């Protein structure tokens, strides 16, 4: 988790000043998109894309190099989480599945933080992104519930996504809870840029067509949904016959292909063909589990031939002409259930860390003290003490994770006053263990000490 930095106080002051005005809204809700884009451009020198989808307002800004700066600031390096978590909050039940692939321990309450002498240009631009969103949304008459900041690092083809509940932001600025708690109430995610995922998938597919790979191998590598297997097998076979000879020429224009995200996990890639016509590829992003196990990042969901080189009228009405796709910014509404499930997941990923590797024992002289320096500095004592060895870390297990999920679910449901009638269901994929906490018993896990969650027999 990224810890508090020097810009937090400036961020707080800016939002408080904008939120406390008793006058008419500075930024009317009808002009939220234009207002944020204009503020970013005129005051901060940032080219931002903004959009509103129902109860959700979002901004997309490209800051190449930001992920490296944030990694240095947090002191967390690139150490991965010790397990995967899949969350699903539907039908009034919260389902959490987890799989640990390495030993882990409970994380310390306070993580190391590396202070930087000066705020880098990247971090300054990140601060300005948040300032622009808060200045506009918190001083408008909008009923926006969720704020989304997508910070793109095109240098490494990644998006850093911050999602916050607007009321949480207002309460934090009113000093109703700490910054640490505010950080826990955010949903932070990192993804491969969807458009880059789709472009790479189609490029790899055409390269395989050029190299005349067997259709059976193409189906194995590019069909991500078994339900589409029959439909795609015919289309991939047709593509192998129709596009195989010109696949090499098509790849030369890869950098200019119009690409448009049309769903949370769906991207369209428009590939013009010679002498006329085009092919429209629909690409689905794969889940993190598939990326880790298969090494792939995208799968083909559909292939459509466009003989006249234009989109069908229905699609053109919804998506616009392909040549105008580059300026589009996709945003979909965030639901409260989706937000809470992801927040519980993030809290768990921050609460555990990989089992630390053993450090080599220091080589010391006999005794607990070394001899004093031959000429100790004036006013200094030349004695050096060896530290008492720290207690060895204690490995955590699936029961610790289940207990954390039960207590955290109860806490988050209480914060947002959300009922979960169907209760909490937990499943450890590694040990095939199931835990269940009925909805009426969840409040009991707010107590200290909380009852121990019991696995089902």
- Kindly report the oligomeric state of this protein: single chain
CA-atom Rg in angstroms: 26 Å
- Percentage of β-strand residues: 15-25%
Main sheet attributes: strand count, strand direction, barrel closure: 5 strands, mixed
Give your account of this protein's structure.
By secondary structure, this protein is an alpha+beta fold. It folds into 3 domains: 8-76 and 115-192, no CATH class; 77-110 and 335-356 and 385-457, no CATH class; 195-327. The chain has 14 helices and 15 strands. It has a 5-stranded mixed sheet with strand order 1-2-6-7-8. A 4-stranded mixed sheet has the order 3-4-14-15, with helices on one face. Strands 9-10-11-12 form a 4-stranded antiparallel sheet. The radius of gyration is 26 Å and the shape is globular. It starts with 7 loop residues before the first helix and ends in a 20-residue tail after the last strand. The relative contact order is 0.13. The model is unreliable at 1-21, 288-295, 365-374 and 380-386 (pLDDT under 50).
């Amino acid at each position: 988790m990224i810890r508090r930095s020097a810009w937090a106080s400036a961020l707080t002051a800016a939002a408080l000043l904008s939120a406390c005005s008793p006058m008419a809204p500075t930024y009317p809700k009808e002009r939220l998109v234009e207002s944020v884009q204009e503020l970013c451009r005129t005051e901060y020198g940032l080219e931002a894309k903004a959009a509103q989808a129902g109860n959700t307002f979002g901004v997309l800004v490209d800051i190449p190099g930001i992920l490296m700066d944030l990694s240095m600031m947090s002191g967390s390096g690139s150490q991965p989480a010790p397990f995967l978590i899949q969350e699903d909050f539907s039908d009034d039940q919260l389902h959490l599945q987890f799989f640990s692939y390495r030993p882990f321990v409970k994380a310390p309450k306070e993580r190391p933080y590396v202070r930087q002498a000066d705020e880098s240009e990247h971090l300054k631009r990140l601060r300005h992104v948040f300032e622009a969103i808060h200045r506009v949304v918190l001083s408008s008459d909008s009923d926006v519930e969720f704020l989304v900041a997508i910070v793109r690092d095109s240098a490494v083809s990644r998006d850093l996504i911050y999602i916050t509940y607007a009321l949480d932001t207002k309460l934090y600025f009113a000093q109703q809870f700490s910054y640490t708690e505010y950080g826990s109430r955010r949903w932070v995610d990192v993804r491969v840029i969807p458009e880059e995922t789709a472009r790479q998938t189609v490029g790899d597919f055409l390269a395989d067509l050029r190299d005349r790979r067997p259709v059976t191998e193409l189906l194995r590598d590019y069909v991500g949904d078994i339900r589409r297997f029959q439909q795609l097998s015919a289309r991939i076979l047709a593509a192998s016959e129709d596009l195989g000879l010109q696949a090499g020429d098509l790849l030369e224009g890869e950098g200019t292909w119009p690409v448009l995200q049309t769903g949370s996990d769906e991207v369209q890639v428009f590939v013009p063909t010679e002498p006329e016509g085009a092919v429209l590829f629909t690409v689905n992003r794969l889940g993190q589990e598939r990326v880790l196990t298969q090494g792939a990042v995208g799968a083909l969901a559909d292939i459509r031939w466009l003989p006249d080189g234009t989109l069908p009228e229905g699609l053109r009405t919804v998506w616009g002409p392909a040549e105008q796709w580059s300026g589009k910014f996709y945003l979909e509404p965030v639901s409260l259930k989706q937000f809470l499930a992801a927040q519980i997941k993030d809290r768990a990923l921050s609460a555990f860390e990989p089992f630390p590797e053993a450090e080599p024992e220091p080589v010391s002289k006999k005794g607990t003290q070394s001899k004093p320096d031959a000429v100790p500095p004036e006013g200094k004592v030349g004695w050096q003490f060896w530290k008492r060895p720290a207690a060895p870390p204690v490995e955590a297990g699936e029961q610790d994770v289940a207990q954390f999920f039960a207590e955290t679910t109860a806490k988050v449901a209480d914060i947002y006053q959300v009922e979960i009638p169907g209760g909490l269901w937990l499943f450890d994929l590694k040990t095939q263990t199931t835990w269940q906490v009925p909805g009426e018993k969840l409040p009991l896990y707010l107590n200290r000490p909380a009852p121990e969650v019991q696995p089902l027999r």
